[in-house]
From TrEMBL:
This is tRNA-uridine aminocarboxypropyltransferase. The keyword tRNA processing applies. It is an enzyme of class 2 (transferase). It comes from the Bacteria.
Length: 199
């Protein structure tokens, strides 16, 4: 029998998160480029961003031809969230960084393990048109279900929440609330011994 999915949130009825959703009206448009290998990962947090943000799209693919939408993004006001050597640190409070953040309209985020994200970057040359942004200091990782999927051990949701908080000072608590709800739903049927390894 097929798993019954909630029409509201897309999760299984057993892990429905509709009650935990409170949409943030973000101005900065979030464009998530999701690697195909992430689509079946039930622990993927990009889907939560789609549910919790008014201005967020997910594009699936791995290379340039999969993302024709990138060509229409404004080069000056679009940033790529990626820890490149020359990345602008969003949490540094210099005048130049503040000016840069203020004029941003779009943020492109790669969703996949670091290895996959690096591959996407290499296969998608038009991403080089955008300035890279990253963090000098990482917030504490809240997503416990998926053990360190990326080298910075932040889930995609946390990386985007932190960016939105630093770029447009919006209150991102509803996103963390959604993440907490997901963790609770996913661990609710785990035996105590298994749960103890995560929490
Ligand atoms: Zn639901």
């Amino acid at each position: 029998m097929a798993r019954e999915l909630c029409s509201g949130c897309g999760f299984s009825v057993r892990t429905c998160l509709c009650n935990a959703i409170s949409i943030i009206n973000n101005k900065l448009k979030i464009i998530i480029l999701r690697h195909p290998s992430e689509e079946k990962v039930t622990k993927n947090t990009a889907h939560l961003l789609k549910l919790g943000l008014a201005n967020c799209i997910i594009l699936s693919g791995e290379s340039e031809q999969d993302f024709p939408e990138l060509a229409s993004l404004p080069t000056q006001s679009t940033a790529l969230l990626y820890p490149a050597d020359n990345a602008i640190m969003l949490d540094k409070c210099t005048d130049a960084t503040l000016d840069f953040k203020q004029q941003l309209t779009h943020l492109v985020v790669l969703d996949g393990t670091w290895k996959k994200a690096y591959k996407m970057l290499m296969l998608t040359p038009s991403l080089q048109h955008f300035k890279a942004v990253s963090f000098a200091t990482l917030p504490k990782n809240k997503y416990v279900i998926r053990k360190a999927p990326r080298a910075d051990s932040l889930s995609t949701l946390e990386a985007v929440a932190q960016s939105l908080n630093l770029i447009e000072q919006c209150n991102v608590d509803p996103l963390y609330h959604l993440l907490t709800a997901l963790v609770e739903k996913q661990t609710q049927h785990m035996p105590q011994a298994v749960k103890a390894r995560y929490l």
